[in-house]
Amino acid sequence: xxxxxxxxxxxxxxxxxxxxxxxxxxxxxxxxxxxxxxxxxxxxxxxxxxxxxxxxxxxxxxxxxxxxxxxxxxxxxxxxxxxxxxxxxxxxxxxxxxxxxxxxxxxxxxxxxxxxxxxxxxxxxxxxxxxxxxxxxxxxxxxxxxxxxxxxxxxxxxxxxxxxxxxxxxxxxxxxxxxxxxxxxxxxxxxxxxxxxxxxxxxxxxxxxxxxxxxxxxxxxxxxxxxxxxxxxxxxxxxxxxxxxxxxxxxxxxxxxxxxxxxxxxxxxxxxxxxxxxx
Length: 279
Known about the structure:
With about 280 residues, this protein is mostly helical. It is about 60% helix and about 0% strand.
């Protein structure tokens, strides 16, 4: 996190126009500003519940919310998502502006910090349909940072239909990228056309990848995959059991056909076994 209220406000008003700063100074003491997130929440609540949108409009029109959401340390991830969701209701093009701010006046990729990209991708991941951002996401996929690549793979796995591109992602050497791609695919409502890729993933040498693929296939009704993932969750070998528990937690926990497997992952948390690509 950016250090202290003053440091956070300094970061988020960095590009604010003089007129915006003048209006803001009439609302708060810029020498001793309040907690930014709490202030933004208050203005949002005033707009929603009391019809007074003066403060929220200033934060949106002055691009202060935009700067805060896109800054990697001004807000926690949860706070950034909270404000981004409200901002999207106020401005349907908010995520487009977020991407434009990230890319403008900087050389790609050397002048764009991975932390800013990851924060922007966090917002993209929360969108119900990020498909209109495909071109930019594919550009991000070429970023040299493996965590950026992995996050992009997870998002694209949710909806991308181009099998050549999906195969290209799955053929990468970094297992985090491949695991996240499979995890994203598992979030789809329908798996039409993905049988071959999921079969290859289910026999992959990486336990995280193969366990997720087996769990996805089991959720889709494949009994052999269900039996295999159940066996893995009972393995005495941590490197086999943990990824299987994590995959079960992701895809089979609420599925009664697992006959108790879904109750097992008490030891499997998103930070523990599965090397979900965000780690």
